[in-house]
Amino acid sequence: MKEDMRALGWPLSQLGTGLEALARRSGLGPSAVQVPVPPASLTAGREALDRWIESAAGWLGVEAEPSTVSYEGLEPMIETAGPAVLELPSMGTSRFLLLLPRRRRGRVSVLAPDLRAVHLSTEAVRHALCVELDQPIAREVDQLLEEAGITGVRREAAQKALVHDRLKAREVGGCWLLRQSPGANFWGQIKRKRLHHGLALLLAAHSVEYFLLIFSWWLIGQAALAGHLDYGWLLAWALILLTLVPFRWLSTWLQGWLAIHGGILFKQRLLLGALRLHPEEIRHKGVGQFLGEVMESGAVESLALSVGFQGLTAAVELLAALIVLSQGVGALFELLLLPVWVAATLLAGRHYFKQRQQWTQERLAITNDLTERMVGHRTRLAQEAPEHWHQGEDEALERYLDHSAKMDRTAARLTVIAPRGWLLVGLLGITWPFVFNRNSDIGLAIALGGILLAYRALKRLADGMLALADAVISWKQVAQLFHAAARPQLRGSPVINSASAASTEEASVLDAHELIFRYADRGEPVLRGCSLLVRRGDRILLQGPSGGGKSTLASLLIGLRAPQSGLVLLGGLDRQTLGDQGWRRRIVSAPQFHENHVLTETFAFNLLMGRQWPPSGEDMRDAETICHELGLGPLLEKMPAGMVQMVGETGWQLSHGERSRLYIARALLQRADVVVFDESFAALDPENIRLALDCVLRRAPTVLVIAHP
């Protein structure tokens, strides 16, 4: 088995070629991108290897996520991991298995160095990954079973069970999952998940279901009107209705499947888009506007799916109604009337859309205003007279109620008059044949069935148009997030990014030349001809008046903004070479208090969110040590769960000074070459300032502190 695995494993020197082939075979990456050869120094540690694989995957336009799983869950993970990279620890020198996407219980496909797809058992792959863990325990268990006198098949089963029980909680690493970035082409992601196939199958299942339903009622109606209704006809009718059951089940299951997987893709893209927004796109918005966007993002997901289902159903039913009406009496009149009525329904839906748009604007304005007032409630209590607290609220509510009444009237006309009006007009259309043509009982029955089918279709169409208006309006609120996810990112060189940030021998760690920057809404530049040289080990204090450009300079240095002119180098390398991730790994910042946040998560997560998650034991110990150095030890002792205590808006409340020290610890834990502190010590008392400065000067290689004079 070892020889087979050695032949199937890719050596480190060929891992770049293997990643490119794996991405191409999995339909993730481009067809002609060459990944640079990894340096031999990657064997020195897992951290450098993680960085190289992450950067190499970014070079190919995909994402590589390091994954750690328990010994017990390793086998199920292997079955569903592909495409993935697995490190083989038992091969002496570093070798890697490349898993192809394959969904078959107990079997996986591996991409061999000769680019063949080789099928292996999951157990064989698991054994190769865990042989170094298994062997010491297996020897102990063998000795125990030998003393107990257990032999044969029972011994083998007992050994396997005991080894599994001893190791089931042990974590196994060395796995990187490859996946397409949420910012990639959205239609491409839909095709990769085969959602379009599911949608086509849903349409086919619903069409067959509808055809069988019409055919069953045609059959029973034909028998009844012809006067030969017997048990054979009833049995045929019952069998057709039973045939409907699997198609109805399939339609329902496909709707849920599309809703879940489509919603996952959409939410991932919105989250990535939120992380890629520029500072200027965020600063002018308030808490209420962000809350509105979050609410609307959920509405877009659910409404878009409901609109799709309603539209498919209405289209199938309208087509079926036209076919049925063409076989009944008064066919010409009904076939001309139905398209006209559908067009009138669409016009009514357009009018509703305008009313809904005005109502949504008023609703979002009230939501924003109410949220901002709630956030600033204490300030209003202290600074605003009680008689002015509700100033403007009554007028806003009156406008909102007026728009609500107009929208409700329009919605009532659309959902009531459109389908029921058609029912009345359609029945009037068959009145003449009913009165004067007594020999067309079957034709009248068919025409009546077609009218009822069209009524049901128009009702679905009206409901779908209400949902469509909501989806379109909600989409306008979140479209910025959706499109921001596709913004191009600088990838950087995998070889450069795999090197340790502190390993460069450049004397100047940060060098800025003739920087010029102006905001879009200002004519004069905030910075003009600004230059800065920071050497390794420097401790620099940058002071100046408010509005002088200190924070703007910090945002240019850390890569949050790009200068209109000039050049910034880190260790002699520009941002194009390092890429966005490599740049942020080498220089980090603790922004001003109002631009930094405590998330509703554990205290440890808020500390280590810029390092890695889930954290290792070393990460947790390092975080706790820094907290004690910053004077946060008493806080940890007060919190019932310590480092895993939930904090944030709905958790443990932190004071202003505690938050400031949390931000300082968060920046230090990222272990960057340069750390920028922007007004980070302003909220601290003299004793805590001394503790924080001692910790910063001891732990940060190079420090730039921005403060007021």
Offer a few descriptive terms.
709 residues, alpha+beta, ABC transporter transmembrane region fold, Rossmann fold, 3 domains, 4-stranded parallel beta sheet, 24 helices, globular
Helix content: 55-70%
Low-confidence stretches are 501-505
CATH class of the largest domain: Alpha Beta
* CATH evolutionary superfamily of the largest domain: P-loop containing nucleotide triphosphate hydrolases
What is the end-to-end distance? 70 Å
* Tally of alpha and pi helices: 24
Number of domains: 3
CATH architecture of the largest domain: 3-Layer(aba) Sandwich
Mean pLDDT across every amino acid position: 79
| Beta-strand content estimate | 5-15%
Rg, Cα atoms, Å: 33 Å
Label the overall shape. Answer: globular
**Major sheet attributes:** 7 strands, antiparallel
The CATH topology of the largest domain turns out to be: Rossmann fold
How many strand segments? 16
> What would you call the structural class?
alpha+beta
Oligomer: single chain
